[in-house]
Specification:
EmrE-like; mainly alpha; transmembrane helix; cell membrane; 4 helices; UPF0060; membrane; single chain
Length: 110
């Protein structure tokens, strides 16, 4: 399960990085090379997400969603220097529990 979670965290990082580069380009007038970093990051994200042990893409995406929420809040805090609140924490814990519940059976064939 640890390997799966690492894949999901790495995928989350590259998806957020990719989308953030597009955000910066379109919203904050950054140079066009930000788009290149965004595209490369999103390709890496898609590749890494295919490395998870899941028979079905939809289940992998569902499990990834909970971990993505945690990664997004960490990005918010460490990159964008914005604090998250109690409801962010409560919601992310609930989402993470849901993701772990989805991941668990696929790792134990059942």
């Amino acid at each position: 399960m640890i390997t799966e979670i690492i894949f999901y965290i790495v995928a989350g990082f590259f998806e957020i990085l990719g989308c953030f580069m597009f955000w910066e380009y379109f919203k904050n007038d950054k140079p066009v090379w930000y788009l290149g970093i965004g595209v490369v990051s999103l390709v890496i994200f898609a590749f890494v997400l295919t490395r998870v042990e899941s028979e079905f893409a939809g289940r992998a995406y569902a499990a990834y969603g909970g971990i993505y929420i945690i990664c997004s809040l960490l990005w918010l805090n460490f990159i964008e220097k914005q604090e998250f609140g109690r409801y962010d924490l409560i919601g992310s814990i609930i989402a993470l529990c849901g993701a772990l519940i989805i991941i668990y059976p696929s790792l134990n064939n059942g």
